[in-house]
Amino acid sequence: MSTTNPILPSQLLESAVRRDPAAPLITFYDDAAGERVELSATTLANWVAKTANLLQEEFAVGQGSTVAVALPVHWQTAAVLLAVWSCGATVLDTAAEAEGGLAGADLVVAAQDRLAAVEEEPAGGELLGLSLHPLGMGMTGYTGPARDFALEVRAAGDRFAPWTAPTPSSPGLQVGGLELTLSGLAGAAQELADRLGLTEGDRLLVDEATAAETGPVAWLLAPLAAGASLVLCRHPDPTGLATRAAAERVTATLGPEIDGIRALGRPA
Questions:
Q1: How many Å apart are CA 1 and CA 23, to the nearest integer?
Q2: CA dist 19 → 9, 86, 218 (Å)
Q3: Coil, strand or helix: which one is 145?
Q4: Residues 6+ apart with CB under 8 A from 255
Q5: How far apart are CA 257 and CA 266, in angstroms?
Q6: C-alpha distances out from residue 71 to 59, 77, 128, Å
Q7: Cα angle, residue 93 at apex, residues 65 and 165 outer, rounded to 5°
C-alpha cells in the first residue's frame, strides 16, 4: 500500500472492506474447544466499530489513552486491538502477571481467566473482561470489579467516529522497550509483508505460539496490509493442520510447516 500520506491501522481494515467485503478475512479455530468462527471484512469492521464505540463512550478512550490488552490470540483480540487504534489510543502489549506491567494503563482489557492476576496489579485504570465465548455470552461465575464486554458491546453503535481524529505520530503500540506510532504500525506491517513475500489474495495460517511470539504487527496488521486473509489457530492439533490448510485453501503459513505450502520467514 504505497501513498504519500501516513496510513493508520484503521485504514488497513477499511481497505479490506472495500476490496472484498463478504469474503472470509479471519477464520479462527480453537482446537481445545472445538470452535470455528469465520468473519468477513464487513463483520470484523462491525465488531471493531461497536468495540470502539464502547471504549470511547464508556471508558473515554481516545488519543492520549493507554489500553493494556491481556488477551490470548483470538478473533476478538483482533477486534479489540483495531478498536483501540481506531480511537487513536495506545495498546500496551504486556503480560498481565508481570509485576508493574500495567502501571499507567487507563483501561485493562483482559480475558476472564486472567482477571484475577490483573486485579492484583496496581494499574489504577478501569477493567473490562472478555469471556471469549463463541456465541457472545458474558462472563459466568465472576463477581469482581471488571465490566463485561459481551454484555456491554451489544448496545454500542455500529458506526464509529472518533471524538478526536487520530494523529499518525501518536503512540500506537508499546511492548517491552519498543514503541511504534499509529502510522509506524501500518508502515511496519507493510514492510514485514513485503519482506515475508505476503501478497494480496494469500490465505495465511498462523498458529497461536507464533502469533504470541511475533506480536500483532505480524499476525494481524501484516496480512491486512498485504490484502491477505488469515486462518488463526489456537491450541492447534498439529496432526490436523494439513487437512485444515487444504480445506481453508491456505497458501502460506507463519510458524507451522506444511508440505506443499510455502512457510514464510524460512529459507526456500
A1: 20
A2: 16, 19, 21
A3: coil
A4: 206, 207, 209, 210, 211
A5: 9
A6: 18, 6, 11
A7: 35
Q: How far apart are CA 255 and CA 264, in angstroms?
A: 8
What gap in Å lies between CA 155 and CA 135, rounded to an integer? Answer: 16
- Which position has the grid cell 471484512? 41
As a whole number of angstroms, the distance between CA 19 and CA 229 comes to 12
- Strands (E) across the chain are located at 24-30, 35-40, 66-70, 90-92, 107-111, 126-130, 147-148, 171-175, 178-181, 203-207, 229-234, 252-254, 262-263
Whether residue 110 contacts residue 116, with contact meaning beta carbons closer than 8 Å, is answered with no
Pairing of strands 252-254, 229-234: unpaired
Supply 119's cell numbers.
486485579
Query: Which residues, 6+ apart, have CB-to-CB distance to 51 below 8 Å?
Result: 79, 80, 82, 83, 149, 153, 156
Question: pLDDT tens string for the chain (268 positions)?
Answer: 444 578 999 999 999 999 999 999 999 999 999 999 999 999 999 999 999 999 999 999 999 999 999 999 999 999 999 999 999 999 998 655 555 678 789 999 999 999 988 888 766 689 999 999 988 899 999 999 999 999 999 999 999 999 999 999 999 999 877 899 999 999 999 999 999 999 999 999 999 999 999 999 999 999 999 999 999 999 999 999 999 999 999 999 999 999 999 999 865 5
Q: At which residue does the C-alpha cell 462472563 appear?
A: 139
| Cell representation of residue 37 | 468462527
